[in-house]
Structure formats: structure tokens, C-alpha cells
Amino acid sequence: MLKKVPKPGEKRSRRAIIDHLKQDGPQDAGRLAERLGISAMAVRQHLYDLEAEGLVTHEAEARPPGTARGRPAKLWALTQAADRFFPDGHADLTVGLIDSMKQAFGEKGLEKLLAVRAREQVEAYKARIGKRRSLPAKLRALAAIRSDEGYMAEVEKTTGGYLLIENHCPVCSAAAACTSLCRSELEVFQQSLGGAVTVKRIDHILAGARRCAYLVTPKD
Known about the structure:
alpha+beta; Arc Repressor Mutant, subunit A; two-stranded antiparallel ribbon; 7 helices; globular
């Protein structure tokens, strides 16, 4: 049996579904339909096609008490196979280079190299953040920088501060091979935003979370 080849419009809709699930996490077909501006029936068909390709999966979510009775809603989420649609930062090459640097320079030598990289990042980030004074403006600029680097970053207001959210990690394989990369990243954010704030990681992809998230709060 010949495999059905999706039309260009169907390809765009399926890619949009993948992007929304990556950006916002598990969702039902109704919410996706609202975001895409197409019917829930069309979204469900796309989801079933993506499920057949191993790109999405779903689980039942019981309806809250007091709402209309019916079947549990299906919450759709991406599988690891969908990672191929997003930048991987040349994972194999990067991991190989990290291993080579460890052998050539040792752990202390690698730490020194990461420190140099972190300083360069801070200088570049501060230059792009520029003279923005308010914390929201600084965070929006930082999120734009990180999105340009493939992290799909966004900013959300939360109680007492803000969340800097990264929905994708293009260097995840490298970070798994060298945990100092993640620690260095946290320090880069802190220095780029200045000493008037505290930056704390509250979600971590390497720890099993869907995303990396940083709580940024003013010290005063």
C-alpha cells in the first residue's frame, strides 16, 4: 500500500502543530485548533497521522468535576522522535570535541575553556541587551538572543518575578556530556542581567523536564 504524501498545506499545518506542542507542551485538539485557526476535526486527523509516524503520543486527562460529562480529553505531546525537527547543535561533533578537550587538557583545562566562553557570551549578551533598564525589557532582549541561538525562548510574568523559559536545547547532547555547560549558562544569565536580580533554574531538560526554566527575581 502506497504511503499518502501530505499536500503542502497539510505539511504546514502538521509542522505548526509540532511547533506549538514544543513551545507550549501537551495540549488537546481543541486548543490546537484555536491556535491554528482550523477545525478540531482537521487537527485530530493531523495528530493521528503524526502519531502513526511516531512523532506524537497522547494520554487521557479526566474532565474537572462539575464540567460536562464525556470522554476524557486527549492531551497530545511530542515524542523524542520529533527532536529531529529542531536544531541539534551538531551534537555528535560537539560531544566528540568535549571528549577530546578532556583528554587533551583535563577537567581543569576544560573548565578554563568554558570560563573563557562564558566571558565572551556575557560580553555579547550585554552588548545586545544594551542600555535597557527595566527587568522585563532586559529579559525580552535575552530571550530574543537565545531564540536566535535555537532555544525557543520566551518570558512569562510570575509571582514575585519572571520566568525565562527555553522550550528547546540545541546543545542537549553536549550538556549531557559536560554538565559544566549548564552551570556556566546559569552564571552567564546572572552576569548578563546584573547584580540586582537573582537567577534560579527551576526546570531542567536534563533532569527530565519538558523545558528549561529560570526564575528571575529582583533582589529588593
